[in-house]
Amino acid sequence: MTQEIHGTVADGFEGVREEFAAFVAGERPDYEGQLCAYVHGRKVVDLWAGTDADALYAVFSSTKGAASLVVALLVQDGTLELDRKVTYYWPEFAAEGKGGLTLRDLLAHRAGVVGTDSGFTLAELADDRQLAERLADQRPFWRPGTAFGYHALVGGALAGEVVRRATGRTLQEVYQERVRAPYGLDFFLGLPAPQEPRFRTTQPMAPTPDQQALLDAAPTGPHALGSIAFNRHAPDPTDLASLPNTPLVRAKGPASVGGVASARGLAGMYAAAISEVGEQAPLLKPDTVAEFGQFHSAGYDLVARAHKSFGLGFQTTADTWHPFLGAGTIGHSGASGSQAFADPWSGLAYGYTRRRFAFPGGAAPENNRLARAIHRAALAR
């Protein structure tokens, strides 16, 4: 039975509802997902299927977008300086040859400390301060600054420790005070206990036989760089799909993968970043958006073993996922299939969440058709 589509779209965005309905009709009967978008600070799409409007989902690495926004605000304030060495803020990070790395390179996934030799416990993965303490002592897996690779489970903790040393506040506290609370966003880095009933546990991937064959054809050794980055070499290997289903992870909200959000929360955050929302000015100035959306690492990603590109903390979404978007689009996807971004050229802010882990991981394939439909409607206005 096809899921019913709920919600509203603004005039001119009727085609987005049709595209969403067409996608959902081809999905499993138990599909759950949400889609939301703003254009120039005005909500134009608010749709969901198989769930309710207030459901919250684990958004995995889309969390890095919130962490990157905090860093961008602090750089904009002058509290952080991109070309200072990380050790200016965090002296212990100098161990094992990491002393020359700048904050700019750290944000661009060039630090080389994607994990540790022995891996992390679940308690450590949930706690950014414990992760940072372990990573400070770790010998990098490549010479810092000379190459890049996705710091999948630790990028937010590295940035967060710099934030904590510079401000005396955790990244999560700064996010709550400057971003989430002022806009009432359903995007949490640390889910409060009263919000727990809204959370929908992530469901495991359900690949087709052909998809499973593709997964089986690309195994990774237990001590390969990709395994280290995703903590699959630890004594208790991490099952990424179930990580945010752990209450401790949701409660602490680690800044790499621990965020919990609705599509409204994802899109609302990016709308606030680049546009006037209500009577509040954009969080980021155009020059800040341009700096953080500029290519800083592009080419062969040593962890992903594929072409990738990053700005400062953010993925360069127009290159990585959606080539129809404007240059300098900032955003981030999440392993379960979530996607969120802000396109400063069109004024589009986009958010998508789903419950079941998507194949093959990262932004779910449907994001391309959904984002394209919204972008097309936005340009036609």
From TrEMBL:
GO MF terms held by the record: hydrolase activity
UniProtKB keywords: Hydrolase
Protein name stated in the entry: Serine hydrolase
Organism: Streptomyces lomondensis
Statement: the UniProt record of this protein carries the keyword Hydrolase: yes
Beta-lactamase-related domain ranges (all copies): 34-358
Keyword presence, Cell division: no
InterPro entries: Beta-lactam-related, Beta-lactam/transpept-like, Beta-lactamase/esterase
